[in-house]
Amino acid sequence: MKAYGMLNKEELLQLQAQLEKEYEDVKKKGFKLDMSRGKPSILQMNMEMGIMDVLGSVADYQTEDGIDCRNYGLLEGIPEAKKLMAAMMGTASADSVIVCGNSSLAIMYDSVSRCMTHGVLGNTPWCKLDKVKFLCPVPGYDRHFKITEHFGIEMIPVPMTEEGPDMDMVEELAGKDDAIKGIWCVPKYSNPQGYSYSDETVKRFAALKPAAKDFRIFWDNAYAIHHLYDEAQVEILDILAECEKAGNPDIVYEFASTSKVSFPGGGVAALAASKANLEEILKSMTVQTIGYDKLNMLRHVRFFKDINGLNEHMKKHAQVLRPKFKAVLKVLNAELGSLGIAKWTEPKGGYFISFESLDGCAKEIVKRCKEAGVVLTGAGATFPYGKDPKDSNIRLAPTFPTLEELAAATDLFVLCVKLVSVEKLLSKFA
Amino acid sequence: MKAYGMLNKEELLQLQAQLEKEYEDVKKKGFKLDMSRGKPSILQMNMEMGIMDVLGSVADYQTEDGIDCRNYGLLEGIPEAKKLMAAMMGTASADSVIVCGNSSLAIMYDSVSRCMTHGVLGNTPWCKLDKVKFLCPVPGYDRHFKITEHFGIEMIPVPMTEEGPDMDMVEELAGKDDAIKGIWCVPKYSNPQGYSYSDETVKRFAALKPAAKDFRIFWDNAYAIHHLYDEAQVEILDILAECEKAGNPDIVYEFASTSKVSFPGGGVAALAASKANLEEILKSMTVQTIGYDKLNMLRHVRFFKDINGLNEHMKKHAQVLRPKFKAVLKVLNAELGSLGIAKWTEPKGGYFISFESLDGCAKEIVKRCKEAGVVLTGAGATFPYGKDPKDSNIRLAPTFPTLEELAAATDLFVLCVKLVSVEKLLSKFA
Q1: B43, B172, B289, B311: which is deepest, by most CB within 10 A?
Q2: What is the CATH number of domain B4-44+311-427?
Q3: 3-state helix, strand and coil shares in percent for chain A, rounded to the nearest 5
Q4: Which residues in chain B touch residue A296, judged by CB atoms under 8 angstroms apart?
């Protein structure tokens, strides 16, 4: 197939008519599929059913140091859960970790909220400042951007590369503007690209010298053990250790959860940070709650046991997820590979594929898919304020549907991409 | 035994010597008991062990309307949990309820935090105001006061009566000062007195006309079903319904949890409020989290089934708790009843007994108990900023110790009360 850009008007019109017909045919099939979020599939969740009654089959509900997990106490989480989450995050010391509730997003929200109301290590609370800004690598995770938007924080996009955010730009912006108080990062198998930060990127983050003393890197290590290929597991440097080495121990808050390891909403989430940061966080946390759900922590520890247990479990997940990613990529390559109207990433882990259409086409592609029954993540969602300046990025979430559903949905998707691209190219002749 | 106030100096000195000797003897026994918090006992927690594997023995994890509780979704909580918590709170409609995580305290903290950063229904965020004040019925719950203190909110004590807070004072203060933005309430079996608000009190709250439009009643219905006596169960009016009737539907946020029904830290917590309030709260909540732990909600619903299941369960709890309250009250009556040096409440439910010593004695009594190995709630904790102006209130928490431990601890307590009271009376002769 020729690249669409090489077609003349006549050829494009002919193609458009043919694609429109195909699209109308697909519409009649009455699909109904929600691919908007990165949800684990039922097959994955069936693999961790042992968590449900792992506490029913034992007689004791005590931590390794004898605390009864059924009662109040242990604000920082049970010791064995701290160890498990530290290992998952690739952080050396369990002492750097607090295990919280079921949602790392909630820890991030609480962290921003605390910075707003109480400030960071003695600095002015952000809510008392005229202007607070955040750097936002784009495309990025929509729910990060929603948090900063909710608190009225101005978001400045920074382009992503395959090595991580454009660090020249991060260093320059953070270095000169003390209203810039933080940056959102998904350092491993990034949402939505599946990129992982290079060692150089991590080291440059660790050595960052922002103008604002209360600048914090919000390091959302969401996909730390979410590899798709046994033979191509990406590892990144431990940000806490690197910051410590760089004499910058307090600059980062790290987050993670088992939402896509055990159950979304029924897992455990954790925070890792320096001693000074943890002390400050615990001052708020001890007011906010008497403690998080230690029984659920115990469930996870008893079921997964240790990092080996986690890794073995994630290999089983990968067996389910890998064919889904491969199936989508195969169709994209076969159908769009030679047309010059799109690019996409080929992640080695994580939950998403990032797709780039011709400029000005993403919204229309998502709209066409929706009209034919397949809901994708809203176009623009991967950018601050939901505004993709080029209207070209689409986040694909292949994890939840069955392989059959996914095949049908991807066929529809490429059809919509072709159709909208042809319309776009035709508009130049108008 | 004569009232201590009738004793002359010689008699007091003689008594002091005798009590000091007893105290030194008790000290040698080397007690080690923490009675500082209202923790359920191990016997109680053993009664709800079925929660641990109730989800292991079934094949389905779906809500009544077919949502898979293992995956993301349902920010407001699962429908059956909303019904259960509404029934527990005595609120007519499950639509008024959001079921959240494991801690009602965290919902209260989040609520205050949201008022600080985002304001209430279009009013100025509290963090942008020069001064924000809260009314605090005293003695009250220390963790309420810690939240308002943490956010720099000025706390104004309001005396408690057996019918609830002094409503003349509440109406006057809230009515004239628009910096007063809220009040902390534990309307049923109050912490620490065990008082329950009369119908008149609830109605006056519902009809409150505060100067501040963004005034909110923080109605912590913590002990809604925590009766001690089958034959003397207190019921209070439903504040949501009363506010609605009074044309004041938005003035209250209600909170509750199963922390002392199922497991402290492993239970579920809920929020109830008007439609307008819930809409506003959900706007923040949808940014804060993708959803709370639906599996834990499902565990609770499957185990307790409905309000009858809850009530039957709480009767079993009462069988364990009643003898403990009775044992403490018996010793207090026998040992202190005629001495004119103390008063205390005789709760019909809840988790605490409120004890009033002679003025200026509470701190010293708690200190003496601690030196002999029994840790009580810190004196002053029941007042804002931890400062009891009369230094007379002590919160007794009889729920956690065994009956044997409790007997020993109460003996020590009355001994310390006597000793410190004698010292106080003697100081008048100095």
Answers
A1: B289
A2: 3.90.1150.10
A3: 45, 15, 40
A4: 266, 293, 296
Q: What is the mean pLDDT of each run of 10 residues along chain B (430 residues)?
A: 92 98 95 90 89 78 92 96 98 95 98 98 97 98 98 98 98 98 98 98 98 98 97 96 98 98 96 98 98 97 96 97 97 97 98 98 98 96 98 97 95 98 93
To test the contact with chain B by mutation, choose from A290, A294, A351 the residue with the greatest count of B C-beta atoms within 10 A, namely A290
**A295 chain-B contacts, CB cut-off 8 A:** 52, 263, 265-266
CB contact under 8 A, B68 and A42: yes
Q: In what order do the strands lie in the sheet with A393-396?
A: A342-344, A353-357, A393-396
Name the residue among A113, A184, A114, A179 with its Cα closest to residue A144.
A184
The CATH architecture of the domain made up of B62-304 is 3-Layer(aba) Sandwich (3.40)
Complex ipTM, two decimals?
0.96
Fold of the CATH domain A61-304: Aspartate Aminotransferase; domain 2 (3.40.640)
CA angle, B7 then B11 then B15, to 5°: 105
- A117 contacts B293? CB cut-off 8 A: no
Please calculate the CA angle B140-B141-B144 and round it to the nearest 5 degrees. 115
The H or E element spanning position A340 is none
Chains A, B: CB contacts within 8 A come to: 156
pLDDT band with cut points at 50, 70 and 90 for residue A58: low
Contacts of B147 in chain A (CB under 8 A): 287-288
Beta partners for B376? B35
Report the C-alpha gap between A304 and A321 in whole angstroms: 20
Distance CA B53, CA A160 (A): 46
Given an 8 Å threshold on Cβ–Cβ distance, is B290 in contact with A105? Answer: yes
Model-level pTM greater than 0.90? yes
Inter-chain residue contact A292 with B264, CB threshold 8 Å: no
